[in-house]
Design a protein that fits this description.
Radius of gyration: 51 Å
Structural class: alpha/beta
Oligomer: single chain
Number of domains: 4
Bound molecules: ligand C2E, magnesium ion
Largest sheet: 8 strands, mixed, barrel
Number of strands: 26
CATH architecture of the largest domain: Alpha-Beta Barrel
CATH superfamily of the largest domain: EAL domain
């Protein structure tokens, strides 16, 4: 609210002042009085007057001097001053008065109406002036807001930009000329989907405002985060404008990221620190609980780090730790987490592993990697260190982050105690089993080049004629290690490690080579059967492999039979069918091995191009004591024949078994009663000795 206007009446004669008061009675202004020039000046400089009525004739300081002094001060330079002058001196006073800065003059004795009218005019002017002042202040305020640090964009109701401020230009790179008339959409970064913008507009429509973080694009193409608030402006219920204010928060974001980096990462290596590790560990545990998964935590402690650090200095030590970190990163899949706990201790978190041993394999690889020398560029020196690793498994060794850490730590001490550069699980039996498997795997990788594999041949005999019509190729490892003596275990392990594809290809080639050699040596033609494991069947391009081996060795396709298991055929049936058809196209035969142990029905197998069923040994074993088994064997033979398969019985050891099979019309058999699997040379002798070969 505007203050009440004030009028200063200056006259040395109190009755004159009173007279003026009387005339101005009822006017909307406060009336102040001064009895001399000095007082008038002092009051005028202290208080803002709408008007000063100034008597010219005063002792000591007259009206001219007062006026001149008023005009000399910024505070009163524009204050309206009406000179009150004697009528007889009107002309000369008027001139002097104006030059002293008077605004107007009145002659004494004062005319009531004229005085009143003039005072009114000045009061009205003063009112307007004040209004103006206030508006100006508001305008300046608005302008300063508009030129704030925040970018401001104003659009009309159609969302067309009508005004932007300087900060907007600084943030976005667009000058006002470039954006006025445009849609603010031109700032779109492409980072948000339609739903994001839809939600934003919904909030503006419903609540009249929206604010939040948004990614926009500067004129130079750069994408940046900003804090944006949009407000709808309404006039009488009708939307007239939208005002957007934006703050570039990219620096804040960077700072935030830096804070995050400091809080969760090790500054030396850039690896996650203990805090982040514990978070991830908890997260991993939650996942294990939910999805029933396996997870391993490894704690690594460098061997021989301290001597390097002590002798070459901390800078060299730092460089070494950085190099260790990058070797670890190179080795591990990116879903694994490597953290540095401090000093020369690191951890590796293996989430979602499929076997407890997987951790041991990773540990072994890390040990091998870190064994290689490190070149320290600062010292121009090559150094060698080692690493010991302790492993704990979620579930078996703990279900909380702390327990897993503690137990991995305990395992680490065991590993160190075992003589460094090795790993240990928290439980001894796992360590032993894992070490054995690792040894086995590394030996397995060398079996072929070291020529440790052999193929044995077991005769397949025609029941009606008792003649050897073929042989099954069975793998033998000449130097098996503990626990892997039987081919079954060996094959299982090779399957798990995927190494079966190498072994499978080798035995196929070796068998065909041998078969061709026997043919060339004039021995009667035999069918040779080679086992194909499910893993090999699905991971090798069997069709190309078989075609290539047949071509390379010259062994006739129709003499080769591949033995597949039911479980191998159940997987991915459409694809399986295509592969089987293509194999048949090559001219080879297919047999189902261990028939009766899987889930597939005879009717189902009918859809595949299979020629032989091999009844599993378990159905033969208890003939003639178990009637159930006998019934099953008899049924398989009968049904197999109806469906057009040849039937072979596996593991025939006794004359009773053989007699039963013969009675039931089984086509052929394999078994110790005729021959165990034999090395190639002995099998050849068996063939020659029998002399009753099919020719
Ligand atoms: P399989 O294919 O069912 O082979 C028959 C197994 O029965 C052979 O065992 C053979 O020695 C054994 N056997 C044959 N007659 C008798 C008998 O009268 N009595 C007894 N007790 N056993 C008999 P082996 O050689 O130990 O092979 C075991 C399994 O290992 C094989 O079963 C086969 O599944 C797998 N296998 C062997 N060699 C290979 C290979 O080269 N590749 C693949 N993928 N698997 C192979
Ligand atoms: Mg077999
Ligand atoms: Mg079998």
């Amino acid at each position: 609210m505007t203050e009440k206007a004030k009028i200063l009446i200056v006259d040395d004669n109190p009755s004159n002042r009173l007279a003026i008061r009387v005339i101005l009675k009822g006017i909307n202004a406060e009336l102040h009085e001064a009895g001399n020039g000095f007082d008038a000046l002092t009051m005028a400089l202290e208080t803002e007057y709408a008007l000063i009525l100034l008597d010219v004739q005063m002792p000591e300081m007259d009206g001219y001097e007062v006026c001149e002094q008023l005009r000399a001060d910024a505070r009163t330079i524009d204050t309206p001053v009406i000179f009150l002058t004697a009528a007889y001196k009107e002309n000369s006073d008027k001139m002097r008065g104006y030059s002293a800065g008077a605004t107007d003059y009145l002659t004494k004795p004062l005319d009531d109406h004229i005085l009143k009218a003039k005072v009114h005019v000045f009061l009205r002017l003063y009112g307007q002036y004040q209004q103006l002042q206030e508006n100006n202040a508001a305008l300046t305020l608005a302008a300063s807001v508009f030129e704030s640090q925040q970018g401001i964009v104003i659009t009309n109701a159609d969302n067309i930009i009508i005004r932007v401020n300087k900060a907007f230009t600084e943030i976005t790179g667009y000058s006002s000329d470039e954006v006025i008339g445009e849609d603010p959409r031109l700032l779109k970064s492409g980072r948000h989907d339609i739903d994001f913008y839809r939600g934003m507009w919904q909030s503006i429509q419903n609540a009249g405002t929206w604010q939040g973080e948004i990614w926009n694009r500067r004129k130079n193409g750069e994408i940046y985060p900003e804090w944006l608030s949009i407000t709808q402006v309404k006039n009488d219920g009708v939307i007239t404008h939208y005002i957007g204010t934006m703050t570039d928060i990219s620096e804040y974001k960077t700072a935030e990221a830096q804070i995050h980096q400091l809080a969760f990462y090790d500054p030396l290596t850039g690896l996650p620190n203990r805090r982040l590790l514990l978070e991830r560990l908890q997260h991993g545990i939650d996942q294990c609980v939910r999805d029933d998964k396996l997870m391993a935590l490894m704690i690594l402690d460098l061997d021989n780090f301290k001597p390097v650090n002590d002798s070459l200095g901390h800078l060299a030590g730092d460089e070494l730790l950085q190099q260790v970190a990058s070797r670890l990163l190179e080795r591990l899949r990116n879903i694994d987490m490597i953290a540095r706990l401090g000093g020369d201790e690191f951890t590796v978190l293996l989430e979602n592993i499929s076997h407890a041993d997987d951790a041991a394999f990773v540990a072994e690889n890390i040990i091998t990697d870190l064994r290689n020398p490190f070149y320290l560029s600062l010292e121009h020196k090559e150094v060698r260190i080692g690493v010991s690793i302790g492993i704990s498994l979620y579930g078996q060794h703990g279900t909380t982050p702390q327990l897993l850490m503690d137990h991995a730590d305990a395992a680490l001490y065991k590993a160190k105690g075992n003589g460094r550069n090795c790993f240990a699980y928290f439980s001894e039996d796992l360590t032993i089993a894992a070490r054995k498997r690792i040894e086995l795997e590394s030996r397995l990788r060398l079996v072929i080049e070291r020529e440790e594999l052999l193929v044995y041949y077991q005769a397949q005999v025609d029941i009606a004629s008792d003649k050897i019509i073929g042989a099954e190729a069975l793998i033998r490892w000449q130097k098996p290690i503990d626990g892997f003596t039987s081919p079954g275990q060996f094959i299982d392990f090779a399957e798990e490690t995927g190494f079966i594809t190498t072994i499978g290809a080798w035995i196929l080639r070796e068998t065909c080579r041998q078969g061709k050699q026997w043919l060339d040596a004039g021995l009667p033609p035999l069918a040779l059967a080679v086992n194909v494991s499910p893993y090999q069947f699905h991971h090798n391009d069997m069709v190309s492999l078989v075609a290539k081996v047949l071509e390379d060795t010259g062994f006739p396709a129709h003499r080769l039979e591949l033995e597949l298991t039911e479980s191998g055929l159940m997987e991915n049936q459409n694809k399986t069918r295509v592969i089987l058809d293509n194999l048949c196209q090559l001219g080879i035969h297919l047999a189902i091995d261990d028939f009766g142990t899987g889930y597939s029905s005879l009717a189902y197998l009918k859809h595949f191009p299979i020629s032989t069923l091999k009844i599993d040994k378990s159905f033969i074993d208890d003939i003639p004591s178990k009637h159930d088994d006998m019934a099953i064997a008899a049924t398989i033979i009968a049904m197999g024949h109806i469906l057009g398969f040849k039937v072979l019985a596996e593991g025939v050891e006794t004359p009773e078994q053989l007699a039963f099979l013969q009675e039931k019309g089984c086509d052929s058999y394999q078994g110790y009663i005729k021959s165990r699997p034999l090395p190639a040379r002995e099998f050849e002798q068996l063939l020659r000795k029998q002399g009753n070969l099919l020719q």
